Amino acid sequence: xxxxxxxxxxxxxxxxxxxxxxxxxxxxxxxxxxxxxxxxxxxxxxxxxxxxxxxxxxxxxxxxxxxxxxxxxxxxxxxxxxxxxxxxxxxxxxxxxxxxxxxxxxxxxxxxxxxxxxxxxxxxxxxxxxxxxxxxxxxxxxxxxxxxxxxxxxxxxxxxxxxxxxxxxxxxxxxxxxxxxxxxxxxxxxxxx
Length: 193
Description:
This is Thioredoxin domain-containing protein. It comes from Nitratidesulfovibrio vulgaris (strain ATCC 29579 / DSM 644 / CCUG 34227 / NCIMB 8303 / VKM B-1760 / Hildenborough) (Desulfovibrio vulgaris). Keywords: Redox-active center, Signal. The chain has six helices and seven strands, in the order H-E-H-E-E-H-E-H-E-H-E-E-H. The protein is α/β, with parallel strands linked by helices and 193 residues long. The chain has two domains: 29 residues; 162 residues, Glutaredoxin, CATH 3.40.30.10. The chain has a five-stranded mixed beta sheet. It has a two-stranded antiparallel sheet with strand order 1-2. Helix 3 links the parallel strand 3 and strand 4. The longest helix has 25 residues. About 8% of the residues have low confidence.
């Protein structure tokens, strides 16, 4: 009797493990990969005049990615609740300054996308970490889903050379290894496009 119960228990346990594994694989999204077309996402949120200038935007919006006046845009998908994003904020600010200093205007723009964050949450993140670059909101995770539901932080380097067909040059989840290394990588990717 004990052998029968033990065998039944093992069979049920294996079945449960199989079902859990198959559901997690089926429910797992994959962020857009390098070489994939990048959607013309809507840039929701409030931008100051200097932030709009960083993206080459004029007027009150709404804006789309194709409105950005740059050949390339680096998009950091972040969440104000992500501890990695919080720890990386000072490096992102240094990256923003380096991007502004390193290149001719219009070569590379930097944009944050607050996945699941409202304007109030993004404003709190901006104020807490003194973020100088534009941060868009995505309170309903609509754009996050469109981008393949990446973890945070996630970086997309997007080529806008062909405004009608933006393409992903870099797609990476996780913190950057360092500002200098990331700048070198961005220069290489932007120069090869």
